[in-house]
Amino acid sequence: MTLTTTRPSSTAAPVARKPAPSRRARVPYAFLAPGLLLFTLFLAAPIVYAGYLSLRKVKVSGLGLGSKSRTEVWAGLSNYTRSMTDPEWLPSVYRILGYGLVVVPAMLGLALLMALLLDAGRTRPGFSGFARISIFLPYAVPAVVASLLWGFLYLPRVSPFVYTLDKLGIHAPELLSSSWVLYAVANVAVWGGTGFNMIVLYTALRAVPTSLYESARIDGASELAIAWRIKIPIVLPSLIMTFVFSMIATLQVFAEPMTLKPLSNTISFTWTPLMKVYRDAFVRNDIYAAAATSVVIAVATFVLSFGFLKLVGRRAFNQEES
Amino acid sequence: MYKKLAPVLATLTAAALFTSACSSSGDKSDDAATSTEKVALTYWSWAPNMDKVVEGWNSTHPNIQVTVNKQDGGDPAVTKLLTAIKAGSGAPDVMQAEYQKIPTLVSADALADIGKEAGSLKDKFPAAAWNAVTLGSEAVYGVPQDSGPLMFFYRSDIFEKNKLQAPKTWDDYAAAAATIHKANPKQYLGTFSASDAGLFAGLAQQAGASWWGVNGDSWTVNINDAATQKVAGYWGGLVEKGVIDNKPMYTPEWNAALNDGTQVGWVSAVWAPGVLEGSAKDTKGKWKAAAMPQWDAAGPATGNWGGSATSVTSQSKHPKQAAEFVAWLNSDPAALKLLAGTANVYPAANDATSVLTTPPAFFADQADFYTIAAEAAKVTKPFTYGPNVNVAYSAFNDAFGKAAESKKAAAFTESLVTMQKATVDDMKNSGFTVAG
C-alpha cells in the first residue's frame, strides 16, 4: 500500500565516518552554525528571556513618581499564582475550548469535503482550478482585515445581509450579542482557515495514483464508498497534521477577537488567554505577569500537540504500515 | 576546493547574519552631536496637521529643527514610548501625552522634569491643567497643550419637533431621552459606551469624583465613591429603561446611527465637531452645542474628556532645546493660532480665547460655540489621575461591557466594585502604598 507519510530518516547521510580526521569532524557544525545561531537568537533566547521575566517583578517605593523609585526584584512564582488565580483566566480557557469545538470540526470538515469534491472533479480541470483558487483565497486575506470585513457584515446598521433580511421581513439575530459572539468569531476563523487546510488535504489526495480508484470502481464501489473507504483513510496523516495545526491556532486565537473587540460589549480584554497576555503586557504594562501566562500557554500547547501526536501517532501511522 | 571553503563560508554567513541582526537598532538620534549648534528633535504626536504647526517653529529656529512623527493615537503612542524606555533607546525627544497618562509615564521614568525651562509658564494655564503636568509636585513634566471640557451636543431639529429645550439638568436629559425614544422608538438621545472609560471618568469628575489622590506618602483610590455611584446608577437606569442605547461609540454602527438620525445627541467634549464632521456629515447644520446637563443647576460644573500635554522624554539628548520648543508650541500666540486653526485642538492656554473667534465649520451657525466652551473650561472640576489609569480603564471596559449588555442598573454600580478592586490590587502588587 502506498503511503505518503514523511518520517524523519534518522541516519540519512553518513557524514562523519569513523576514520575521518578531527578537522573534518567539525565541518557539520560549521554548516549547522547559521541555523543554530538563528535558532538561538530568535527562538531560544526570547523563550529563556520570557522565562526569566516571569520570575521577576517591579517593586515601587513610596508614591512611585520619583525617577529611581522602581526596582526589579525576584518574584518567585508569584506571577504564576497571580495569573492562574485571576478570575478571568479560567473563563478564557473554557471559552477557547468551546471555540475550538466549533472551529476545528467545522473547518476541517469543510476542508475535507471541498478537497474530496475537487478531487472527484479531477477529470474537469478547468473548473477545479478556479474553484481551488477561490476556496483558497480567503487564506491570503490577513486575519485583521478579514475580521474588519466580517465586523461590518455583523453590525446591523451597516450590514447588507441584515438589510436584505429586514426587507424580507426576517428579524436577523444580533451576531455580536453574548449568545452569538463565539460563533461570530469562529466564523471568521473558519472562513480564513478552510482554504489552507483544503489545499493540504487536496495535495495529499492528488498523490494517490488513479489506478487505485479504477480498481475500486471495477469492483463496483460507488464514489461515496471510494471517498469513505479509500480517500479518507489515505489522507488521514494529513488530516492529523491539519488537526494539530488547527488546535495550536485555536490555543493562540488573538487577531480576530481583538479586532472585533471595539465593535461590541461582549468581547472583553481577557476573552482568550493570548488576549490576557496582551492586556497584561501592553495595557497594564505588567510584562512579568504576561510572561508567566505566556509560559503557561506555551507549555500547554507543547503538551497538547505532542500528547495528541503520541496518542494518534501509533494508531494512524503504524496500522497502515504493518 | 569547495569542501575546504565550506566551513569558512558558513562562519562568514553566520557572522554576517549576526551583525545584521544586531546593527538594526540604535542607529539614529545621536547624529546631532552636542558640539555643533544644530540640533534635530523628533516629536511624536497624533494631532492632525501638527507638521504644519511645527513648520512655524522650524522656519524661525534654524538651529533647532523638529520633525513630527505621526502617531496612531494616545494609547499606541504610550505603549511604544514605554517599550522604548524599557529598551533604553528609540524614544522621541518630545511627546504628546494625554493628561491621564502622565502619572503612568512619570512612574515609568519616561518624562524629563523641565521645571527650570518651563516653570515660569504656570500663570498662562488654568490651575487644573497645570496641576495635571506637575502632579502637585515641584517638578514640571510637560506643558499643557489642549483640554477637552465636556459639552452636550444635540440635533436641534429633533428637539424642536419634540418641543424640547437643551437639558439644563440630568433630570431634564433623562426626560428628553424618554420623550424622544417614545416619539420614535428607533431614536436615542445617546448611548452608554463601555469602551470609553475616558468619558465616564469625565462624567464622574463632573459629579465631584477624583478617582485617585495623594495622601502624604500613599495613594488613595476612590473609584467606588458616592459621586461615581450616582453617575453609574444614573446611566444604568437609562439603559435599563431602554431610553438610551447600550452600544459602544466609535464603531461603524455608531457612525451610521449619528448620520442617519438614530443617535440624536452626544455627551462629548469641545473637540466633538471634528468627529461629527467625519461621522455625521449628512446632518451638517442640524447640530447645536450646549453646556453640560448639571447635577446641581445652581453650581455648574463639568469634567474633561481627552486633552494632552507636550512632554520631553527622559531619553532626549537635548532636553533644554526640547523644552524651549514645547514652551513655544503651547504658549506663544502665533503657535496657539496655528494649534487652533490648523491642528484643530482647543488650546489649554488662557490666551487661547483670543484666537478662537470663529466657530468650528460643522457648527458654523453657532457664533457662541467657543463662549460656551470657555465657560465650560472655567468650571472644570479638579481630578487626580493615578499611576495605573490603564488598569482602571481596562477594568471599566470589561465590567461595564457586561453591565451594558445585561441592561441592569444594579450591574452598573456593581461594576464599580470590580474596577476599584482591580485598581487597588494592581497598585498593591506593584508595591505602591495604598491607603484605605
From TrEMBL, chain A:
It is a multi-pass membrane protein. The chain crosses the membrane at residues 27-52, 96-118, 130-155, 180-205, 234-255, 287-309. Its main location: membrane. InterPro entries: ABC_transporter_permease, MetI-like, MetI-like_sf. Belongs to the binding-protein-dependent transport system permease family. The keyword Transmembrane helix applies. This is Carbohydrate ABC transporter membrane protein 1, CUT1 family. Pfam families: BPD_transp_1. The keyword Membrane applies. One of its GO terms (cellular component) is plasma membrane. It comes from the Bacteria. It is found in: Cell membrane. PROSITE patterns: ABC_TM1 (PS50928). GO terms for biological process: transmembrane transport. It comes from Actinoplanes regularis. Keywords: Cell membrane, Membrane, Transmembrane, Transmembrane helix, Transport. Residues 93-308 form the ABC transmembrane type-1 domain.
From TrEMBL, chain B:
Pfam families: SBP_bac_1. Gene3D superfamilies: Periplasmic binding protein-like II. InterPro entries: Bact_solute-bd_prot1, SBP. PROSITE patterns: PROKAR_LIPOPROTEIN. It comes from the Bacteria. Keywords: Cell membrane, Lipoprotein, Membrane, Palmitate, Signal. Residues 1-25 form the signal peptide. This is Carbohydrate ABC transporter substrate-binding protein, CUT1 family. It comes from Actinoplanes regularis.
